[in-house]
Amino acid sequence: MNEKSLEILEFNKIKKRIEEYTNTVAAKDIIEDLKPYDNIYAVRQHLEETREAFKLLVIKGEVPFDGVYDVRTGITMAKKGSVLMPIQILRIGAVLRSARRFKKYISHKDDEESFPVIEDICSGITELNKLEDKIFLSIESEEQVSDRASSTLYKIRRSLRDKNSSVRDKVNSLMRNYSQYLQDSIYTMRGDRYVLPVKSEHKSMVPGLVHDQSASGSTLYIEPMGLVNLNNEIKELKLSEKAEIERILAELSLEIYDDISAIEIDANILWELDFIFAKAKFANDLNCTIPSVNEDGIVDIIQAKHPLIDRKVVVPMDIYMGKKFKSLVITGPNTGGKTVTLKTIGLLHIMALSGLMIPARENSTVGFFNEVFADIGDEQSIEQNLSTFSSHMTNIVNIIDKADEKSLVLFDELGAGTDPTEGAALAVAILENLKKRGSSIVATTHYSELKVYALKTEGVENASVEFDVETLRPTYRLIIGIPGKSNAFEISKRLGLPNFIIEDARENITSETLKFEDLIQNLQDRNLKAEAYKREAENLKADTLKIKDKYDSKLKKLQNTRDKIYMEAQREAKNIIKEAKDESDKIVREMHEMERLGYTSEARKNLEMHRKKINQKLDETESKLYINKSDDGEKLENVKEGEEVFLPSLNQNVIVLTTPDNRDEVQVQAGIMKVSAKLKDLRAPKGISKQQKKKKREAKLNFKSVSSSVDLRGMDSIEASYTTDKYLDDAYMGGLKEVVIIHGKGTGVLRNSINEMLKHHSHVKTYRLGEYGEGGTGVTVVALK
Asked: Which residues are documented as binding site for ATP?
């Protein structure tokens, strides 16, 4: 594609924006060379890789590029057999680690969404685990080789620490002995050797080697003879340390050299992935979507926005052409947005054909064009002694020479800069010539002749940019199907031009022209009213849906509250009856004790009879508490733990938690409540299949032991949200009041995803980040309703 159009449409600014999202210079170089691809297969392939990267960012969060640098220089040196510096080796290790992590990052289960394009790119990655482990074991930082790199280095450094300790002890001892001869009561270093600051007049009192003197000459830095041997030993150890470090670096460099082809491939794949995910991050920030691409010249971009205009002020526009018409003539006042419309159409096409997502709504369509030609802006050139008209005409000559049916041609103020009559005629001829070639054309103009041409010619359509005469401001909205009106008289009138001048001007215009302008105004007014009615209808629909959702939510809450109150009343009544029965049994036991102490058996019989009457009356009272809604169910002779049964008094299925006791009562789980029920009142379960019974039974039994925390570390956002939602249901049904969600600190993506879900969860009362001692920002503490 021609460089001039890329420059005019400011594609280079888009590339600079994308570069801000990269991690390496190598990826920036790839972006620097980015331009539209020359076949539709490549366009679709690169759009798909961008879509996959975008989806991965949403599902799995930040990509594993931590610590990755551009190591092309290190790889080049390694290929020549050079010994690499610690920083170069460490960064190559970071590339190997990132490549290995990336293969894990894109891995997925069989039932999860796949990412075939990026998976295919990553298939070329070679995991060099042994080399990676050795690098990170041997290199501690960008300047330091680790003690663990070899046993020899470890021993040398341990000996160095011991010798340094001995030297310091010796130095401190000498300082005490020679304190009266020293300038300061401190020792210092000169050339890796310990020395004492001795006053120059007392140099003979401290026998040793003079290494340096102060600027004033009053202080001599002397190495006492007692330190010479120790300093020599330290020097020898440091030389041994340096030699061992050089040996280790040479060994690592040789191992890198042996695997340099695989390392280079891994690095190149990482640069490409860095480029792909930079495109995805750019798209994420601009709320972009993937357009479909066709070879038929069809353009249908919905709510298109210019990516370089502030998102807070840019006005979206709908752009369509290619089906009923392939030429679009846009008219309207200056500063109305005609040029922005041209640049938006051109730039969004270049972005899409370069594999970039575009700032537009879903289901937008762009055409695959081999060339996008643009003649936009003031092209006057002083150096070439060309006028504005001549410069534009030079561009147009070049366009006419090269344009064909696979070209998108953009003209700004076609035919301007010369005599209006001749300019309009020339503009019509240029448009007609390109139309016959099958080119797709978008042109802006002020000429009324072009409006008429668009009205009369098949395959050509008028469009206009809307202008509000009341406020004297453009709305920047594109209206296809209606030509623009200049509004010169209305604007002049509102700005204070006398009416008699305006009326004189009207008389100089033919009646046909005035009627045409009035027709345009009428069409625009009708269009504005239709749009206003449409927006009002949409607002009313949105308000109606909000009200519906609001009352649906209230109804659900009322039902939940009613059920809870009913359950609570049942449980309280049960407790009262149970307490009464226990009390009657206690009285009878006491009576038995009294009988043992002297009461007759006749008295015992009377008491037993009264106890039975009390229990019978309590049973009758209990039965009145419930409305038996289903007496026709199948009675159960025996039940076992975990079995699902129907309890008519509650009109729902429950889970049996205990076997029948000596009173033929069992404990059952009803929702979040545990209640006691008579075996004779239980019925066979209703309304579900055997398989559903089993699933419910397993789920209910799990409520008996719900953990107070759930660990989400290692999960992606979707899996973590699903796990948290299920866990909160279990915790709520299990009666827990407070739980802990462990998501780890990391980049914060997982934490933000979980907190966003908690905002709208029906079981959540409040939530907060953990405090000191609870796990800090690595956990979220949730209070349940």
From this structure: 332-339
